[in-house]
Structures are given as C-alpha cells and as structure tokens.
Write a structure and sequence with these properties.
It is a multi-pass membrane protein. The protein has 822 residues and is an alpha+beta fold. The protein folds into four domains: 2-40 and 109-224, Calcium-transporting ATPase, cytoplasmic transduction domain A; 306-334 and 484-621, HAD superfamily/HAD-like (Rossmann fold), CATH 3.40.50; 338-480, 3-Layer(aba) Sandwich (Calcium-transporting ATPase, cytoplasmic domain N); 662-684 and 692-822, no CATH class. Helix content is 50%, strand content 17%. The protein is built from 28 helices and 23 strands. The strands form four sheets. It has an eight-stranded mixed β-sheet, sandwiched between helices. Strands 2, 3, 4, 5, 6, 8 and 9 form a seven-stranded antiparallel β-sheet that branches. Strands 12-17-16-15-14-13 form a six-stranded antiparallel β-sheet. Helix 18 links the parallel strand 19 (528-530) and strand 20 (549-551). Helix 3 runs antiparallel to helix 4, helix 24 (703-731) runs antiparallel to helix 25 (734-757) and helix 25 runs parallel beside helix 28 (795-820). The radius of gyration is 35 Å and the shape is elongated.
C-alpha cells in the first residue's frame, strides 16, 4: 500500500526534533482546525433557549395575555403572564435534564497523547494535535492519534488490523528528516507511514503528524459511508404523523369554531379564545417532549449498566431488538487469553517449556499470547533466561526467534509460532509428526489457540543466523479465551424473548463452534458456516435466520449480512471494534462499539458504546430498553386518554352553543397536571425478568389497544359534557358547571395514572395525591375559585365526580383486559 504523504501540510514549518513552537501551533490550528472526525456543533445554551421557545403553550399564553392587556382586562392579563413563568421554567429544566444526560458521557471518549513542543515533552488532548506535531509513541502510549510519517523507529511493529482487516503486525521504518526537508510532495511507502487508530505492538517511535481529523485514513472511511442515513424509527414516524395530522385538524377546527361562535352572536374575543383553547388542546406538544425526556432518562439509566449512548433515539430501538449480530472475541469471550495446556515431549518438563516460551516472547509488548505466557510463568516461579538477541514475529514468518546462552561455547536458538511451521522445521519422525499434528487439530477443535515451541543448539556465533531445520521439538502451548460465565444466562434470555443471536467472527469455524456450544447458542448443535460459502441468493438470505455462527467473515461480508437481515424485517444490533466495521455499524439499526478495545472511528460512528465490551451488557441494555419502551407506552396512553376528552369537549361545547368550558387559565391548570404526570409518574424500573414487547417493530399500540383508548376517550368525553351541561342547567351558573367539569377532568388524570402504574412508583403516588388535593383546594377555596372563574362544589357534586370516575375506571379495566388477549 502506498500513500501520497501530505507534506504540503508542513510548509513553513521548521522540521526539527524540538517540535513545534507556540506560533507554529497557532498557525497550524488556524489552518487545519481540531483533530476531530465527527464534529459537534451548536451552543448548548442557545439550543436550550430555542427548544424551550418551541413549546406552543408558551406562545399561546403570551398571545392571549397580550390580547387581554390590549382590551383593558389587566387583571386577567397579569394572571396569564404569571402562569407562563412556571411553564417556561419546567420546559427549560426538562430540556436541560436531557442535555445533561448525554453531555457528561462525551468526556469518556477523549484521549491524551505525549508530544514534543518547544523541546519539551508535554501531554495534550488528542483533539489538540496539529500537522507538524511530533508524537512520541511506544507500547505504553500505543494508539496513533493521527496520520503521519515515522522519523525515528526502534524495533517498531504496529497493529493495523482496525484499518486494513489484516491481523498480522506490520514492521515500520523511519524515513528521516531529509525527505521532509527536501520534498514538498512525494510517494511514500506505507512502511514509513503511521495511521490514526492503529496501535504500537513492539518498540517505539516518533511520528511526525501529516493529517488530522477528516483527512486521516479512517476519517475518509467514516465520511465515505455518510450516504448510509439513519432512518426514523417507527415511533418517531408515528409521532411526526400524529403531530402533523393533529395540527392540520386543529387549524381547520379553529377556523370553523371561530366562525360558528361569531355566527352565534358571540364577540370576537370569545371566538379568539374558543379557537385558541382548541388549538392548544389539539396540538400534541407533550408527545415530542415526553419522547425526548424518556430518551434522556434512558441514556442515564443505560450509563449505569456500562452502556454509553451517543444517539439518544437508540434507547427506544434497543428495547425492540429482534436480531443481535455479535463479535466473539472480547464480547462473547472474556477477551484475555489464558495458557491452559502445556503438552510436552517425554524429554521436556513443563518448566523448561515455559522457560523457552518466555525467551521467545516480548515482555514489553501487548501481544495477548505473550502476556498469557508470562502470567503462567509468574505463577510457577519460572525465571526468564538471559536473551542475547530476538527476531520478532511477522506474518510471513509466523514465528518468533530468540538466541540464548548455552553450555560452553554454544548458543540455543528457540522458535515459537504456528504449529505447522515449527513442526516442519523439527527433526520429528513421521510417526511422531502425525501424532503431534493430530494433537494440534484436537486442541484447535476444542476452541484453543495453539502454538508450538522448538529449540536447537548451535555453535557460538555473533551473526545470530536462524537455522532452517533440525530443531528439537519440545511441546505445544494451548490458550483459551473462555466464554464469559454470564453470557449463557443472557443467551437464554434472548431465546425466551424472541431475539436471535448470530455470532460473526473471523476465527476458524471449529473454534467458533466450540464457543457457540459452550454458551448454548442453540439447544442442539449450532449451525456454523463460513462467509465465503454464502451465495447471497434470496433463499440464502432467508436462511440467515437459521444460522448461528458465520466464521471467517470479512467486514464487507458483515455489512451484507446486516443489510440482508434488515431487509427481511429484523431490527438489528451490530457490534464492532475496528475501522472496517464502520459501514456495518452505520448500516445497523443500532451500532454498538467496544469501549475497551474499540477504535476511535468505531466509537465515533456507533450509536452506543459498551464500556466493558461484554455481551451481557447488551442484553441488560435490552432489558432496560424494554422497560423504558413500556413506560413510554403507558405515558402516551395517558396523554391520549386525557387529550381526547380535552380536545372534543373544547370543540363540541362551544359548537352546540354553550359558554366556553375552558378559559386560558384552566388550560394552564391542566397543563401543569398533564406535563409532570406524563413525564415523572411512569418511570418504572426494570425488575430484570423477561418482558414481552407489546407493539412490534412497526407498531406502538395494537389495534385492540388503540380501539380501547379511543372508546374510553369518547365515552369519558360524553360524561364530561353531560356533567358540564347539567351543572349549567341547574341555575345557569357557568362557574358551577366549570367546577364540575374541571374536578372530573383532574380526577380522571389522577385515576388514569393510578390505573396504569398501579401505584408502583413514588412519583406516581405523589402525582395522584397532589392532583386530587390541589384540585379540591383550588375549587373549594373561594379566593382561588374566584381567580379561576369557578365556584365551590357541594358534597353531592363531589360524590357524582367520584361515582363517574369509578364507573369509567371499571369500564377501562374490562376493555383493557380484552385488548390484552391476542
């Protein structure tokens, strides 16, 4: 791979080992900006103000209060202006709470690097890097924050698998300053280049930064998939359509109602109030507010489960997942290799096998195999022999070599690597070779990673030339990355709740199959296929639902699988950790990046980040998401059961010629009940048990539930109108009629909250008590009643309110039970 190094980014920069000066840093930042791939724009305080001012209730109150002021009713105007204040503060608080739930999580995505500036080593945020910076990288500071060119290298090997998909280490070399000083633009081999998101495995080096942010290699990959757009979720689409339809309907009825009131002989102020009240009742501003707030609560709750949400709408989708496409290593498994088997020849002890294995390993590197060897050696108190020279592992050689001091004037050459390579260089007989080859196959089928070790005594020399054959084979090392113990229970939960789990891995089919059996991915033997055997026909795509494991899968094939599953109607979660996983993460309904081992690019594009890389965390998030979705359903059900009688009574009563039921101050009263109840009363917590989702991928309420809500809403509207009409006809007292209607509607709100939540939350119990208590106080206290244009009710009137409410709740219970039968 070659790349045209962007040396022009370094023009007018003094290329020295002292690093950039303050003036050069300022100049470069002015030209190139910050080292950010996905920019976050917008002032949160301005967003808070704009979101608050979007509430139509605020504008309605201000407009009506202004009208009262201009017609000379100063007292009513002051009341309405004053009533606007708590609504503004409540909206502002809710928007701020939602912002705060997500903004605090962003700091967990940042990283720091060490650079040389003004001849000093300083630690800075990776976002502050500019072209020309000299970054110090080693096995301790191993993630590359930008693209650049290696000026200095010492035994440097880099893992570029997150960018290229290739698992083997890449040797790096320094190009020197002469090229940077003499050339403005040149072709540079990838041996001399470092790429953002990759990591140092061995050695150390100085990287001169050439490109940052969107101009890096992984930045280009991310922005190449921008055409993969995030579709609206079914609920988002439903809210949008509901809002649009009700707004159109409200406008139509407003004009009709205003015209009818004028025709009936009422004044223009009465007509304006009638139309305005109906508009506020009909415009469903609570629905998007509740939706946004519940997502914010979901973000906060999921963070407690090690789930960092970057796209809040994923909180709604996570509860309705039907398909999980998961990695194996580090997600299903622990992600840490353990040396579990030491298979030695008769002449070799396990201690000697460990000692020679240590010699052919890198104590300062990040190779999980080497780490496992040193962990086992420490437990058994095996000491590292004196190493004279080592040759690091490379993919083409598939082995690591070490030279040790031997007896007298001899040396020992130790090789450790792929069994087929080591066995081919050994002096084993054909019979023994067959036996050890079968042993390697048996261990691999058991889900183990297997390495072989051999040693040869050579005549002392200073050239350290590796022999090509006749090594004495001493044994095998078998490593396990065991499944996480909690994954099995999570798989059972998925199976009980209709969630299909598909393991997608680049590993050998035998290894993947062993892990799949261990976690119980299928009650019978799991069905395992290799990705290259898929022919992508329609029949094959449908068969994906029956497959349990796809092995030897490339990132492009993973993307095809995700698209095929979505096309077949599944709501798909995908896990990924590398740059090559970016397209699949973006294409999924919910992309989940690994927080511990994931690349920065995967985290940037994912909807969710797991801070512990654990499959069970995904399932815990689904449990929490299902409860949040059910909470949202209850809240929306409450809103509909309140809004239907609110809208219909506000329209029908004036149309049939009676005085207005709701004045602006009554609308304020109802909004101060409806908003807190919808937002806080339905925040039930998950009990960790199975929960069948009501309302599948493309529906929020079932047809029976929708019919129940509509029937109950209409019947209660008739009860409300009847109560208002009787109260008015008793003695032509409009204040008395309004009191009966407001008491009935307020108590209905409390009854619906109690019915839906069964009083299981403290907030629900508080809202029920506060709604009923304040309604009684506001109606029965003569001073409040006068301000609200009401009159105190008699004991018989309250008896009628309680009786009507009880009858409605019994009817609701009956119809609700029938709607739950599917």
């Amino acid at each position: 791979m070659e790349k045209k190094a962007q040396l022009q980014n370094l023009r007018d920069i003094q290329i020295t080992s002292c690093g950039l000066s303050d003036s050069e840093i300022s100049k470069q930042r002015l030209i190139f900006g910050e080292n950010i791939i996905v920019e976050r724009v917008g002032n949160p305080w301005l967003e808070l103000v704009f979101d608050t001012l979007k509430d139509p209730m605020v504008w309605f109150l201000i407009t009506i209060a202004s009208v009262f002021y201009f017609v000379g009713d100063i007292y009513e105007s002051i009341i309405l202006y004053t009533a606007t204040i708590p609504l503004v503060f409540m909206d502002a608080f809710l928007h701020w709470r939602t912002q705060a739930s997500t903004s605090s999580l962003r700091s967990q995505l940042s990283s720091s690097v060490i650079v040389i500036r003004d001849n000093r080593k300083v630690s800075i945020d990776s976002n502050d890097i500019v072209p020309g910076d000299l970054v110090i990288l080693s096995t301790k500071n191993h993630f590359l924050p930008a693209d650049g060119i290696w000026e200095e290298c010492d035994s440097l090997q880099v893992d570029e698998s997150v960018l290229t998909g290739e698992a083997f280490p890449v040797n790096k070399s320094s190009i020197g300053k002469d090229t940077l000083l003499k050339q403005k633009e040149c072709l540079v081999d990838s041996t001399f280049l470092g790429f953002a998101g990759t990591r140092v495995l061995t050695g150390n080096g100085h990287l001169r930064v050439l490109a940052i942010g969107k101009k890096t290699s992984y930045g280009e990959i991310i922005h190449s998939v921008t055409d993969i757009t995030h579709e609206r979720t079914p609920l988002q689409q439903a809210i949008l359509e509901l809002t649009r339809n009700l707004v159109y309907l409200a406008l139509l009825f407003c004009f009709v109602l205003a015209g009818v009131r004028l025709y009936q002989g009422h004044g223009w102020l009465d007509a304006l109030l009638s139309a305005g009240v109906l508009a506020v009742a009909a415009i469903p501003e609570e629905f998007p507010i509740v939706f946004t707030f519940f997502l914010g609560v979901g973000v906060y709750r999921l963070a407690k489960h090690h789930v960092l949400v970057r796209r809040a709408v994923s909180v709604e989708n996570i509860g309705r997942v039907t398909q999980i496409c998961t990695d194996k290593t580090g997600t299903i498994t622990i992600g840490k290799l353990t040396l579990t088997h030491l298979e030695t020849t008769e002449e070799t002890s396990e201690q000697d096998l460990l000692r020679f294995s240590m010699a052919a390993s890198n104590a300062d590197g990040n190779d999980p195999v080497d780490i496992a060897i040193f962990d086992m050696s420490k437990k058994r108190s095996v000491k590292m022999p004196l190493k004279l020279k080592s040759i690091p592992f490379t993919e083409d050689r598939k082995r690591e070599v070490a030279f040790l001091e031997g007896n007298d004037k001899s040396q020992l050459c130790v090789i450790k690597g792929a069994p087929e390579v080591i066995l081919s260089k050994s002096n084993l007989s054909s019979v023994d070779l067959d036996l050890w080859t079968k042993e390697v196959s048996t261990l691999a089928k058991g889900g183990h990673k297997v390495l072989a070790v051999a040693v040869k005594e050579i005549i002392e020399t200073t050239s350290f030339i590796e022999p090509d054959s006749d090594f004495r084979f001493i044994g095998l090392l078998a490593f396990e990355d065991p499944a996480r113990p909690e994954v099995k229970d999570s798989i059972i939960y998925c199976q009980e709740n209709g969630i299909k789990v598909l393991m997608i891995t680049g590993d050998h089919p035998d290894t993947a199959s062993a892990i799949a059996k261990d976690i119980g991915l299928k009650k019978e033997s799991p069905l395992v296929i290799t990705a290259h055997n898929l022919d992508w026909s329609q029949e094959e795509i449908r068969s994906l639902k029956n497959i349990d494991v796809v092995a030897r899968c490339s990132p492009l094939e993973k993307l095809k699988i995700v698209k095929s599953l979505k096309k077949s109607g599944e709501l798909v979660v995908v896990t990924g950790d590398g740059v090559n996983d970016v397209p699949a993460l973006k294409a999924a309904d919910i992309g989940i990046a690994m927080g511990l081992r994931g690349s920065r690019s995967a985290k940037e594009v994912a909807s969710i980040i797991l801070s512990d890389d654990n499959f069970s965390t995904i399932v815990n998030a689904i449990r929490e998401g299902r409860q949040l979705f059910e909470n949202l359903r209850m809240s929306f059900k409450y809103l509909l059961l309140i809004h239907i009688p609110f809208i219909l009574s506000a329209a029908i009563i004036p149309l049939i010629g009676y005085p207005l039921l709701f004045l602006p101050i009554h609308v304020v009263w109802l909004e101060l009940i409806i908003h807190p109840s919808a937002l806080f009363a339905f925040q039930l917590k998950s009990n960790g048990k199975s929960m069948k989702i009501k309302g599948a991928r493309n529906s929020f309420f079932s047809k029976k539930e929708s019919a129940t809500i509509l029937i109950i809403g209409i019947i209660f509207t008739l009860v409300l109108i009847y109560s208002y009409r009787n109260g008015f006809l008793e003695n032509q007292n409009i204040q008395h009629a309004r009191s009966k209607a407001m008491a009935l509607l307020s108590f209905w709100s409390a009854g619906v909250v109690l019915f839906l939540t069964k009083g299981r939350t403290v907030a629900a119990r508080i809202m029920v008590f506060m709604t009923m208590a304040f309604s009684i106080v506001l109606i029965q206290n003569t001073w409040f009643a006068e301000i609200l244009h009401l009159s105190p009710l008699h004991l018989s009137d309250w008896g009628g309110v309680i009786g009507s409410l009880s009858a409605m709740l019994l009817l609701f219970l009956f119809l609700n039970k029938r709607s739950m039968v599917r």
